[in-house]
Amino acid sequence: MIGSTPLPPLERGTLLASGRYEILEILGQGAMGAVYKAKDRELDRLVAIKVIQPELANSRVMLKRFKQELILARQITHKNVVRIFDIGETEGMKFITMEYIDGGDLKSLIVERQKLPPLEAVDIVRQICQALDAAHSEGVVHRDLKPQNIMMDHTGRVVVMDFGIAHSKEMPGMTMTGALMGTPEYMSPEQAKGEKTDLRADIFAVGIIFYEMLTGKIPFKADTVVETMYKRTRERPVPPIDLDASIPLQANQMIMKCLEPVPESRYQSVKEILQDLETFDPTKKIGAADRVKARLRKAAHYRNWAVVTALVLMAVAVVALVLRNRSAAPKPAVAHAPVTVVIADFSNHTGDPVFDGALEPAVKMELEGAGFITAYDRSAVVRSLGLRVPAKLDEPAARQIAVNQGLGVVFSGSLDRQGDGYTLSIKATQAVTGNVIKIAEETASKKDQILLATTKITAAVRRALGDDTSDSALRFAMETITATSLEAIHEYALGMEALSNGKHQDALQSFSKAVDIDPNFGLGYGGMSIAAKNLGQQEEAVKYIQLALGRLDRMTERERYRIRALHFNITGDNEKCVTEYTTLVTKFPSDAGGFNNIGACLVQLRRISKATEQTRLAVAILPKRALYRFNISVHSSYESDFQAGEREARTLQAMDPSSPNGPLALAFAQFGIGQLTQAAETYQKLNGFGEIYASRARSGLADLALYEGRFADAARILEEGASEDLSHKYSDIAAAKLAILSYTRLSQNNMKAAVSAAESSLSNSKSVKVRFLAGRTLAAAGQTALAQKVAADLSKELLNEPQAYGKLIEGEILMAKGDPRGAIKPFSEANSQLDTWIGHFDLGRAYLEAGALPQADSEFDQCLKRRGEALALFLDEWPTYGYLPPLYYYFGRVREGLKSEGFAEFYRNYISIRGKAGEDPLLLADARKRAGL
User: How many other CB atoms sit within 10 Å of the CB of residue 636?
Assistant: First the structure.
């Protein structure tokens, strides 16, 4: 092939695009053109600019394909994929602008270090796979993945670049059919043979990169390129563990699976690789960020390294994306890669305490008006990141948090008196480098203008970070933020900090003061709703969120989505909850809490696998957020994967030993595994985390007793626990304990006490959960009129969940009347509305008593497979596993009726659980008789 003549380098200071871009330095030059570091003077940010060689730019076919594939590139919006901004032309030169990556490429890192520690390699592979997952979901296959196309910036973020350039770089006038695309060392066997390829070619390349990071060697090495390609089509590589025995077995297995010669034998998607990577402990990995930072400290050496590796930017300029099976419409592109900001406490030099904590929430709301920005003030650092903050979160402390958590920007400021007025000064800096992004100053002639000054100055930072929101939209957002008073925002900030620290009663008081000062302050009512919900005051939570909804016009767009979604969550409209949060994260894709909350609502719809997927998206944004790990742990336990639940819980404990969520998740997993003694010990540890968690501990210990058939112990713990809850005004939590007490009394065959406990629970709460549990007991105890009233009230409600529970009570009434055939219909209808574990259990009982044994077997088989859901029937982490053991007894009866040889095993399982206590007057004796014991 005839080589092209490189363009003469552009000089420093050269202006392109009518002066918008200023060339700062050349980063690299090659056959495709040259890459420059430049300043976008309009947006005040650094960019990379690739100027394309004239012969390529003048090829009509090349240019048409180039523009088309550039459009596709912009639709892959993920933090681990390089961001392409635009294509332009100036004085006959075609050029592309793209994200400037200030870091080094993976190939240079491997060459210098020879090998990477396994857990560091896992960290890098995880991020590569997340990038590929985003591309593959758009139908795009990379086809030229290699360490030279993978970069790491200062925060340790791995960025995959140059999607699919090989076919266009050398054959601009050819179609893709029959073209040999890719770099030989990283090429899949099917690529080497010129066959049709799909995403599994990228998976093969991931395996080679993983292999190279751990061993320092490339598999299939040969003397010539032809031999290299031939070997991979005929041979498997030497396992990496044979070259280095210290390589973990699981890493070796993953690499070998990626490198299978036949695509059907490899991983079939990068999602499968990501699932296997989850077994590595993320808290013990040697982070890529730490390695990059250490290298950057070696200034002279880093300069040489950066110059070499910046050549990778050259490749991204042609971004020849290969489209595969794009049957769906393209997803809308996000305008900017996600940016995360830590807001330091403002320095208040005015002597007026009303400003303490009042400006930071306004800054946060204004910053988050840009969809790509997520900001963390003092309370959000605790609430969203799960971290403790010092008494004074000054700029150095904020920067330390940002660096440790991999967050990008620190926002700091001060407020000073200037005669009768005020001067507000702010600074935004890059967390790792300390480079200043923006410094600004604004004055206010009087106190009531300071919020307006705050929003105006913050809007300038938004623009410096890349926001292009229209002036009219910015003005509207400013008006909504500044419509309240400083005093109200001050109390709101105190409430948010109290909420973040688990002081829910204090939070409620501060939020109440905020709305007393400004009755139209909608976010104050939203905070009251959250605090009330956390205090177990469901009816109050509903009342406050309704008040917040009446003040939506005083909120920013992002807060409106959050308040509506919170309303749907609190009122149990989980379908709408999912819809609203999905809209939120579509407009604001860096909102990790939004993804997590989609998962929480999906769990309530019993779509647990989907919920876990959404929660993992939140983890991808904030990998060190302990709450998200807690959710993944309990989701795993709900799916009956108790070992995974335990693994995630222990990871969570290592991440945040001070959090009560670790013991809570671990207790659930231990209970499911059958480690009852350990679960009891873990529940006891919750007593040290405040009254709410002490209440959870009591519920857990009572549930263990109920599960084992120690009914007297369970009843005592529940009675004492309910009394304690009521003394703290946790009425809904107390009522739930009384409802479970009613079931415990039912299990003792003490109908009078069962009815009394059910009625007491109903007098303390009208929550759906309490009404269902109490109504079910009343029906089973023969209190038909009371049970029918509860069922009717539930059935009148708008949402599917209460309607389904109403039908389950109707079925239980018919079962108590000796009409199991009649009960089948309402039980089946309930399951159609909401697919619950208890619904399948009750339907199985009806089929059994009606003599429909195969149908009963099917229902009970589902219950056994989904037994994790019985850990908390309402999937709210309040334990109810004591409802599970009768499943084994009834399943035994079904299998016995079907003449199954192993029927007695089910009875023995029931006896092994409840036989030791010997307190069961209803099922235990019959189980022993039927088992021949």
Answer: 26
Look up residue 182 and give its DSSP letter: S
**How large is the angle between the packed helices 784-795 and 800-816, nearest 10 degrees?**
160
What is the distance, to the nearest Å, from the Cα of residue 49 to the centroid of all Cα atoms in its chain? 34
Cross-strand pairs, 95: 51, 88
Q: Which two tokens stand for residue 203?
A: 């998976």
**Average pLDDT of span 396-424:** 86
Yes or no: say if 815 and 823 are a contact pair by the CB < 8 Å rule: yes
Q: What is the distance between the alpha carbons of residues 408 and 426, in angstroms, rounded to a whole number?
A: 17
> DSSP character for 835?
-
Residue 547 corresponds to which tokens in the numbers above?
Answer: 């008040």
State how far Cα 304 lies from the chain centre: 38
- Could you tell me what percent of the chain has a pLDDT over 70? 83
**CB neighbour list of residue 123: distance below 8 Å, 6 or more residues apart:** 156, 282, 285, 286, 287, 288
Helices (H), 572-690: 574-587, 592-604, 608-621, 626-638, 642-655, 661-673, 676-685
CATH class of 337-482: alpha beta
Q: What is the DSSP letter of 144?
A: -
Written as one string, the DSSP assignment of 693-755 is HHHHHHHHHHHHHHHTT-HHHHHHHHHHHHHHHHHTT-HHHHHHHHHHHHHHHHHTT-HHHHH
| Phi and psi at residue 89, to the nearest 5° | -145, 135
Name the residue with higher pLDDT: 800 or 735: 735
Q: How many residues does this entry show for the chain? A: 933
Burial bucket for residue 902 (CB in 10 Å: 0-12, 13-18, 19+) = exposed
CB atoms within 10 A of CB 8: 8
- Three-state secondary structure of 750-796: CHHHHHHHHHHHHHHCCCHHHHHHHHHHHHHCCCHHHHHHHHHHHHC
Which element (helix H / strand E) includes 442?
strand 436-444
pLDDT band of residue 590 (cuts 50, 70, 90) is confident
Tokens of 228: 């290299």
Query: Could you tell me the two tokens for 324?
Result: 């595969």
Distance CA 363, CA 482 (A): 11
Interatomic CA distance for residues 546 and 554, integer angstroms = 14
Please list, in sequence order, all residues whose beta carbon lies within 8 angstroms of the beta carbon of residue 353, skipping any fewer than 6 positions away.
none
CA geometry: angle 506, 509, 515, nearest 5 deg: 145
* 8 A C-beta contact, residue 642 and residue 630: no
* Mean pLDDT within 837-856: 97
Question: Domain 109-143+152-158+179-311, what architecture?
Answer: Orthogonal Bundle (1.10)
> Are the folds of 109-143+152-158+179-311 and 337-482 the same?
no
CA 302 – CA 295 distance, rounded (Å): 6
**CA–CA distance, 846 with 824 (Å, rounded to integer):** 6
Q: List the one residue out of 156, 405, 397 whose CA is nearest residue 293.
A: 156
Q: How confident is the model at residue 63 (pLDDT cuts 50, 70, 90)?
A: low
Look at residues 727, 868, 696, 765 and name the one whose alpha carbon lies nearest to residue 742: 765
With beta carbons less than 8 A apart as the criterion, state whether 164 and 84 touch. no
What are the C-alpha distances in Å from 99 to residues 82, 84, 299, 395? 6, 6, 23, 27
Is residue 403 predicted with pLDDT exceeding 90?
A: no
User: What is the pLDDT confidence band of residue 897, given thresholds at 50, 70 and 90?
Assistant: very high
Whole-Å CA distances, 695 to 315, 700, 702, 738 = 59, 9, 11, 13
Q: What separation in angstroms does the CA of 97 have from each of 36, 570, 692, 759?
A: 10, 46, 53, 69
| Tokens describing residue 772 | 């269902």
| Sequence ranges of the domains in the chain | 109-143+152-158+179-311, 337-482
CA distance 603 to 630: 14
